Automatic annotation (TrEMBL):
Biased composition (Polar residues): 1-26
Descriptive protein name: Bacteriophage T5 Orf172 DNA-binding domain-containing protein
Residue numbers spanned by region Disordered: 1-41
The Bacteriophage T5 Orf172 DNA-binding domain, residue ranges: 92-159
InterPro entries xref list: Meiosis_regulatory, Phage_T5_Orf172_DNA-bd
Superkingdom: Eukaryota
Segment forming the signal sequence: none
Provenance organism: Spizellomyces punctatus (strain DAOM BR117)
Length: 178
């Protein structure tokens, strides 16, 4: 049967229209993300008719949260900021490593942003455990709460750049390589 005469339900009706995007609102009863879709990405922030009027009140965090972030990401950042600090959280460095094409990366380069208390030791761990040679791009001594700082960075960057092909570490989440 020739299905080419039947348009796909996933393709836009006109060339300039974007495919539907999931609503970034949250249900009040379960506090989970709304499953409705919005007509296109031209409707910013991407919310269905029920959640269109909602906005995130950043309160005391307004100066720290970029106003161009989506409702969903702002909500995630605020949720993280208002959590009590864990007893296990401690001081440390935030680092940025890069793997270049040829270092086990097939196309382009990959970046890893994480936390550690000893940057030299962490670089050595990457080399010995994973067989990779990461290039240290930058490191920053953070607040006394390095775990929280890392989490906030990952939340914001996940919207801006996505997460790529890596899950739990570089190159498929090898154990000990995250």
């Amino acid at each position: 049967m020739n299905t080419s005469a039947y348009p796909s339900t996933n393709t836009p009706k006109t060339p300039h229209q974007s495919p539907p995007t999931q609503c970034q609102g949250f249900t009040r009863s379960t506090r989970t993300r709304c499953t409705r879709t919005t007509p296109s990405k031209s409707q910013i922030p991407y919310r269905c008719h029920q959640h269109q009027e909602e906005d995130v009140d950043c309160g005391e965090y307004t100066e720290w949260i970029d106003e161009t972030l989506s409702h969903y990401t702002k909500k995630r950042l605020i949720d993280e900021l208002v959590k009590p600090v864990s007893d296990k959280d401690g001081p440390g460095y935030i680092y940025v490593y890069q793997l270049m094409e040829g270092d086990g990366v097939l196309d382009g380069s990959m970046y890893k942003i994480g936390r550690t208390t000893n940057i030299s030791r962490r670089l050595t761990q990457w080399s010995t455990r994973c067989g990779l040679t990461p290039h240290l791009i930058a490191h920053f001594y953070t607040t006394p709460y390095a775990h929280r700082a890392e989490r906030l960075i990952h939340i914001e960057l996940s919207e801006r750049f996505g997460t790529g092909p890596v899950a739990g570490g570089w190159l498929g989440g090898d154990e000990g390589c995250d």
